[in-house]
Write a structure and sequence with these properties.
The structure holds two protein chains of two kinds. By secondary structure, chain A is of the alpha/beta class. Chain A contains nine helices and nine strands. A six-stranded mixed beta sheet of chain A has the order 5-6-7-3-8-9, with helices on both faces. In chain A, strand 6, helix 7 and strand 7 form a beta-alpha-beta unit. In chain A, helix 4 crosses helix 5 and helix 5 crosses helix 6. By secondary structure, chain B is mainly alpha-helical. The two termini of chain B are 29 Å apart. The chains are: A alpha/beta, B mainly alpha. At the A-B interface, helix 2, helix 3 and helix 4 of A face helix 1 and helix 4 of B.
Chain lengths: 268, 247
């Protein structure tokens, strides 16, 4: 982390208060959340350290930070896939795992891995079944997302041979089968060409417009896109929240602020 | 639950084709080594009232028991190995129910493999002039189930406990004692291990079923009891463990 922030100018603090939005009900609450991995030779990796976070229902939030800051672990915790070492995580008042069991959470992982031997269509077919579709609604929903993501011609291809960009599109397609109220998108723009980046923006905005209660969390290194798509930015570094502010819409201002925060965090 | 019911035939189809093809390949490769018409285990596949009937069934049971870990290894670990688990498990499904559906799909596949094996051996035996009842096809389904309830559950637990890529080690940990118990007298350490992990009752029940006999109640109870207990623990562990491929 330090290496890529060392050469950046130190930005002065803006003195703004952390982001607050009192009009919406609270959806996600993390308090004192810690998660440590044990690597080879019992090397400790502190992915999340005493992390506190509150996110309101219906908001669009960007989680930004350098590689290894804990963004994907945070998403894993919220998706009920990673258990906490300490602290408390609640989604709508339930533990993430309980919330997932009752309502499901839409997750686009940072690396979309698909069953190698299955075709794109068959993979989506199964996910549609697990999303609760039955009978004729299954192929209908699969065809709809195949068309939305331009995957119709590749639907018979086995997942093992797909490029990174195509995998990413399949990952986005599975989110759209039955969009949940909470969507976690980890590096959604990764691997997408400029045309599909633009289309993704449209899909993202559509998802937000479709349901007033839908909450979208997005992690990205693309600060320009982040400024355009979200209304709040949370900066994470070494498993801690180091800044939290409303997105101003200007990508340059956002970039300067984020990089300044990360540089200061790296120095301390 | 309805989702899992709809998904079940697809889970069976995933493994069935590959496992039947693999079985056919093994039978094809081993058939030149067979010598029919003479007595004894080493002389080849003999069944149904002829000399060597028990040995043949024992061999088939052993082959199925060794094929089962390979089949069972996919119940949990292929989700982790492919990393496709997060896409599936963030849906509103019961995780123990999901793993149980996959376990059950493996059971159906092993029963399929057992029928193919028994039928192929019977055909080959008759083609070489053998007569008599041969291996029981209905019994082979039962043998597949008895083996699966023991092996499938044990491998499910090991796959759930071990991390990605290490599940193969778990598979070997199950396959080796099975092979040793089948081929060596149960003495000393092995006898102790066999008492804790009832490998011998499992093989004995499978052999009895293959020759069309009803297995002894105690062997069935030991095998079934072990299998169900391990299956319960395996489902619990699998549904509660971390999914590190996300983090």
């Amino acid at each position: 982390m330090r290496a890529w922030t060392e050469s950046l100018p130190l930005m002065p603090s803006t003195g703004e208060q952390p982001y607050q939005h009192v009009a919406r009900s609270r959806l996600i609450e993390l308090s004192g959340v810690s998660k440590t991995y044990h690597g080879r030779y019992r090397r400790r990796i502190d992915a999340l350290v005493e992390l506190d976070l509150r996110i309101e229902a219906g908001s669009t939030v960007a989680i930004v930070g350098p590689n290894g800051a804990g963004k994907s672990t945070l998403f894993g915790v919220l998706a009920g896939l990673i258990r906490l070492d300490r602290g408390r995580a609640l989604v709508h008042g339930f533990s993430p795992a309980a919330y997932v069991r009752s309502r499901g959470i839409g997750l686009l992982p940072d690396r979309v891995r698909l069953p190698a031997r299955l075709t794109v269509r068959e993979t989506l077919f199964r996910l549609a079944i697990l999303d609760g579709y039955s009978g004729a609604a299954i192929p209908r929903s699969v065809d709809r997302v195949l068309d939305l993501l331009g995957l119709r011609e590749r639907s018979g291809d086995r997942c093992v041979g797909l490029s990174h960009g195509l995998r990413q599109r399949v990952g986005i397609a599975q989110l759209l089968l039955r969009p949940r109220e909470v969507l976690l998108l980890d590096e959604p723009l990764s691997g997408l060409d400029p045309v599909w980046r633009a289309r993704f923006r449209g899909l993202f905005e559509q998802l937000h417009r479709d349901s007033s209660g839908r909450t979208l969390l997005l992690s990205s290194h693309e600060l320009g896109e982040t400024a355009r798509l979200t209304e709040r930015v949370i900066v994470i570094e070494a498993g801690r929240v180091v800044d939290d502010f409303p997105t101003c819409g200007d990508s340059e201002v956002l970039e300067h602020r984020v990089l300044g925060v990360l540089q200061r965090a790296g120095e301390t | 639950m309805r989702s899992l019911g709809t998904l079940f035939p697809r889970l069976v189809r995933d493994r069935l084709a590959l496992s039947v093809v693999a079985t056919a390949l093994v039978l094809l490769l081993t058939s030149p080594l067979l010598r029919f018409g003479e007595s004894g285990f080493a002389d080849g596949y003999m069944a149904g009232g002829e000399p060597g009937a028990a040995s043949t069934a024992k061999l088939v049971g052993l082959l199925l028991a060794l094929a089962a870990p390979w089949l069972a290894e996919g119940v949990v670990s292929d989700l982790r190995r492919n990393g496709s688990g997060p896409l599936l498990l963030t849906r509103p499904i019961s995780r123990p129910g999901f793993y149980f559906a996959r376990w059950l799909a493996g059971c159906v596949c092993l029963a399929g493999v057992a029928i193919v094996t028994a039928a192929t051996i019977n055909i080959a035996w008759r083609a070489s002039g053998g007569s008599g009842p041969g291996l029981s096809l209905a019994g082979s389904v039962g043998a597949g189930f008895v083996i699966w309830i023991w092996v499938g559950s044990t491998v499910l637990l090991l796959s759930a406990v071990l991390d990605r890529g290490e599940a193969l080690v778990g598979t070997l940990l199950v396959a080796i004692p099975i092979a040793l118990t089948a081929s060596l007298p149960t003495t000393g350490l092995l006898a102790g291990a066999a008492r804790v992990m009832p490998v011998r009752p499992m093989l004995s029940a499978a052999r009895a079923l293959l020759v069309g006999e009803v297995p002894m109640q105690t062997t069935l109870l030991k095998t079934g009891g072990w299998g169900l207990a391990i299956l319960g623990v395996g489902l619990l562990v699998a549904s509660r463990r971390d999914w590190r491929s996300v983090g």
